[in-house]
Structures are given as structure tokens and as C-alpha cells.
Design brief:
- This protein is α/β, with parallel strands linked by helices and 509 residues long.
- 42% of the residues lie in helices and 11% in strands.
- The protein has helices at residues 2-41, 46-50, 56-73, 84-95, 163-176, 189-193, 218-225, 256-262, 282-296, 310-322, 345-350, 355-368, 386-395, 404-410, 432-435, 440-464, 490-493, 501-508, and strands at 115-117, 135-137, 145-147, 151-153, 179-181, 197-202, 230-236, 248-249, 270-271, 300-304, 330-334, 376-380, 399-402, 478-481, 487-489.
- An eight-stranded parallel beta sheet has the order 4-13-12-11-10-7-6-5. A three-stranded antiparallel beta sheet has the order 1-14-15.
- A hairpin with a 7-residue loop joins strand 2 and strand 3 (145-147).
- Helix 13 crosses helix 16 (440-464).
- The longest helix has 40 residues, at 2-41.
């Protein structure tokens, strides 16, 4: 009897599954028939009109292709914006894993633009790396900032980044002794949570310090700068990925919390103006810097992507009229290779000078005008490995900022979904389900490890070149491979300008 009962239920189960299968099959056929009819009669897509249904596989494979290439088809050195070798280097540094290779490097040392460093014949005995010394930023501010670490976290806003990502960056930065730039999205509690030094950025929309009509609210700025962690204020004029265009935060990311921090409506696209309403020329920029520095007491500078140095020369001439104390305390130079969550391809790939050209041009202009010691130079733009950072310092940067390097340290897999609120690692999404994947305690350690290891290995390069501080690296210590496969010293490609006696007097003053 029991066997008969079991057989009966087995037959019923099989018949049920068979019926469900037939239902699914009929539904699938009907769906395919509808898609076939729609594809065949639509007029906007030739492929689907000629090849109904199966034409959709083309777009499916196009979508999957960027992910499969990353793992299966591209070599270690082929991908953009960062190839597998670069990403693996960052992952190892973040995990504090051994960062050595066997049997030689896969890097092509004959490729055009590849930098390498000139070792000294008799390096100093003892430790195999050198430590950076503190640099003072803003000597004329009421609260000048002394900072040793030359590798820091670049501008990334809360909103573009998730709360767990910001918390992990803040905590990791504090452990490594580096600063964190808030980006233009305002100061969130998560920036302060870890206890790191903060650079507060004022974007063109003045998020967090804006009046209802988008002007600067002095009282809100004072309240933010009252936090001891806030060490400097940066006025963002533009960013490398989209010069001449303001940032866009999609409506899906504008949660009530983000809206409150920024001072904007909930659930609406937030588009920043393409420039500050009150800064339309060099004179107004200087006025804004002076006002903010006097108001807050913090060192104040600006961030820009450069198309030329003519306006910097004009700015230097204006400083000559007003006095050395009126100069911006720092300039953050963003190369056109800078990254962002969302930017038009035309601007991202075709506008603005790349860092390798803009950085030496800015440094040389400041030298010519006798302002190089007064104005500190901070650069950003795809500097994620030790030799990238060492190259930038050799070119003349005092500090190097990185955004995507620290995103990789957080676990970014370069899935290219930063602007879709679907980031699979929880870094650039406001979806709580996806944010769950980012464990702050673990990722903060990786952020700290990455920063320490980059600076340590730059210190190894500096020691090998025979200098006592990484910032003593200059254009005589680095060579770059030309189009003929032969390297040329940076000092030959970008010679330092000669300084007149009058400029030396200004510099000493």
C-alpha cells in the first residue's frame, strides 16, 4: 500500500512538472513570437529588423564582452583604464601580500612613455628606503598644515561613494596618516568617523555650504571648518574627466541623507554648474581664496584641469600685485586622464592636458614666477603604483592624490558600473543589499596597507636613486622611453627654467 501511494504521488509530481514545462515552453514560444513581430516591424534598428530575436544576442555579448576580456582574453598589460598587472599590484599592496615577481617583469621597457629611474652607483648603507619629511602648506594661514605623507586620497564625494566606502577610506586614512579629500558632495559624518585629516572641497554647486540660490554660506563653511580634522579648503574649478562641465549625481543616488548633507531636493538629478557663479576670472578666484582663508583660518587653494598656462601666468602676476601672502596655498592639478562615475566620452577622452604634460608646465611656470616654494603642487591622474607616484614627484609634485587606486584597494573590480548604482562591490552604490558586501573593518585595513606600501616602495626608489627624502627626486632621476625605444632624461624633455636674480629675491622673501 505504501509503495502504491508513493508511486501515485511520484506520478502526480512528474505530471505537474511536465505541465509546468509545457506551460513554460508555450510561454517562451509566445514571447519569442511577439519579440519576432516587434523586431521585424520596428524601424530604428537594422540588425533586429533583418534578424529578429537572434539579433538581441549581439547586444548581450557586447555587454558581456567587457567583462570576459578582463579575465579570459586580454593580456596582463592590455586593458584600460587600468590593466590587470596594475590592478594586481594594488590588490597585493592592499592585502599586504608579497609584491615580488619571478623570472622577470612582463612590463615592456621599450614602450613609448614608460618611465624608469636612474639608480645611484653607491646608495647609502643601512635601510633600503627613505622616509618623507613634513611639508608646510599655508604658511600665511592662521592654521598652517604640516603633512609628511606624499600619497593621499583624492576627491570622491559621499553620494558617488557609498557610506561603507567612505567610512573605510576615513578609517584607513587615519591608520596610514594620510588625508582624505571630501569631493564636492559636502562633509558627511562618515568622513569624520575614522579620525583622518580632511581636505574639504567646495564644488561649483557649493554642496554643504550653499545658500538656497547656490551661493557660499559663510556660517555653514565656518561650522564645517570648526572640525579639527578639516585641515584645508579646496575650491574645485574643474576635474580631469569632464573639464568645463559640472558633476551629475543621478536621482537614484540622491537619498534623503545625501540630500540633507548637500542641501538639495530628494530623488532628483543633481547637476552642478559648469563653474562657480561668483568666480569668472583670475581676480575673482583670488578674492575667493583670500575670503575663505581669512574666514576659516585654513590653508586654501584650488583644483583644476589645465588647457594651458596662460591664466596661471595671469594669476602669478596678480599675486605680484597683491603680495606673496595672497597666493593660493596649493594647486591641485587634475590630468585629463582623471576618472569619474559618469562623464561624456568626448570630454573624457578629448579635452584638457594629460598629467605628463600639464604637471611640468605648471611647475615650470611657478618656478619662472618665483612662486614654486610658496604654492604647493598636488597632482592626480591615474597614479596608482609606486613608480607612477615616483614619476610625479620627479616631475615636481609635492603630493600625489589617487581616487581609483584607493577604490581598487577597497575591492573595486573595474566592472565599469560606477554611474549605474549597481556596483557589485558596494563602493559606488546606494543600494543597501550591494553595500553589504563591503565590510568596513576589513577594507579600512586594506586602504591603510595600500597607502603605506606605495609610500614605502617610493621610498625604495628614492633610496636607490641616492636621495634622502622621496621629495628630493627630480627630473634628473627619471628617464622616459621615446618613440624610438630609447630613453630620454626628464630634464631634457622638460628642462627647468632659469631663475633671474629678481625672482630669487622674491623666492627668498
Amino acid at each position: 500500500m505504501e509503495s502504491t501511494g508513493f508511486s501515485h504521488w511520484l506520478i502526480v509530481l512528474v505530471e505537474t512538472f511536465a505541465a509546468l514545462f509545457m506551460l513554460l515552453l508555450i510561454t517562451a514560444v509566445l514571447v519569442l513570437a511577439v519579440v519576432w513581430v516587434v523586431d521585424r516591424n520596428q524601424t530604428h534598428n537594422s540588425v533586429l529588423r533583418n534578424y529578429p530575436v537572434i539579433g538581441h544576442f549581439r547586444y548581450f555579448f557586447l555587454h558581456l564582452g567587457e567583462f570576459f576580456r578582463q579575465y579570459l582574453f586580454s593580456s596582463d598589460r592590455e586593458e584600460f583604464p587600468f590593466n590587470r598587472a596594475q590592478r594586481v599590484w594594488v590588490y597585493r599592496a592592499a592585502k599586504n601580500s608579497e609584491n615580488t615577481n619571478a623570472f622577470g617583469s612582463t612590463r615592456d621597457l621599450r614602450g613609448e612613455g614608460v618611465p624608469f629611474f636612474v639608480n645611484a652607483p653607491f646608495p647609502a648603507l643601512g635601510d633600503h628606503h627613505v622616509e618623507p619629511k613634513p611639508v608646510r602648506i599655508g604658511p600665511f594661514a592662521r592654521e598652517p598644515y604640516d603633512h609628511a605623507a606624499f600619497f593621499n586620497i583624492s576627491a570622491m564625494s559621499f553620494g558617488a561613494l557609498s557610506a561603507p566606502a567612505v567610512r573605510a577610506l576615513s578609517s584607513g586614512a587615519a591608520k596610514a596618516g594620510i588625508w582624505m579629500d571630501t569631493g564636492e558632495g559636502g562633509l558627511a559624518p562618515y568622513h569624520l568617523e575614522g579620525g583622518c585629516d580632511i581636505v574639504f572641497e567646495i564644488g561649483t554647486a557649493k554642496y554643504g555650504v550653499r545658500t538656497p540660490d547656490g551661493k557660499l554660506d559663510d556660517q555653514k563653511l565656518l561650522a564645517i571648518c570648526a572640525h579639527k580634522q578639516v585641515k584645508m579648503v579646496s575650491i574645485k574649478l574643474g576635474q580631469g574627466a569632464k573639464p568645463g562641465m559640472g558633476g551629475l549625481l543621478p536621482a537614484a543616488k540622491v537619498t534623503p541623507e545625501i540630500a540633507a548633507i548637500r542641501g538639495i531636493p530628494v530623488g532628483q538629478d543633481s547637476q552642478s554648474p559648469n563653474r562657480h557663479l561668483d568666480i569668472g576670472n583670475v581676480t575673482q578666484l583670488m578674492d575667493a581664496i583670500t575670503h575663505i582663508r581669512r574666514l576659516t583660518g585654513k590653508p586654501t587653494g584650488f583644483k583644476a584641469v589645465f588647457g594651458g598656462m596662460e591664466w596661471i601666468e595671469e594669476l602669478c602676476d596678480e599675486i605680484g600685485k597683491r603680495g606673496i601672502e595672497s597666493a593660493p596655498d596649493f594647486i591641485i592639478i587634475d590630468g585629463s586622464e582623471g576618472g569619474t562615475g559618469a562623464a561624456p566620452q568626448t570630454l573624457m577622452e578629448g579635452v584638457g592636458l594629460p598629467l605628463h604634460e600639464a604637471l611640468p608646465a605648471l611647475v615650470n611656470t611657478l618656478i619662472e614666477k618665483g612662486l614654486r616654494d610658496r604654492i604647493k603642487v598636488i597632482c592626480s591622474g591615474k597614479c596608482i603604483t609606486a613608480y607612477d607616484v615616483a614619476w610625479a614627484i620627479s616631475m615636481g609634485a609635492d603630493f600625489v592624490n589617487s581616487a581609483r587606486g584607493f577604490m581598487l584597494a577597497l575591492g573595486c573590480i573595474q566592472s565599469l558600473q560606477c554611474n549605474r548604482n549597481t556596483c557589485p562591490t558596494g563602493i559606488t552604490t546606494q543600494n543597501p543589499r550591494l553595500q553589504r558586501g563591503l565590510v568596513v573593518a576589513d577594507k579600512s585595513e586594506r586602504v591603510a596597507n595600500y597607502a603605506r606600501n606605495v609610500m614605502h616602495e617610493v621610498g625604495i626608489i628614492a633610496h636607490s636613486c641616492g636621495v634622502e627624502d622621496p621629495r628630493e627626486l627630480d627630473r634628473t632621476h627619471c628617464r622616459v622611453v621615446g618613440d624610438d625605444g630609447i630613453s630620454v632624461p626628464l630634464i631634457k624633455l622638460f628642462p627647468y627654467p632659469k631663475i633671474s636674480a629678481e625672482q630669487i629675491t622674491v623666492k627668498s622673501a
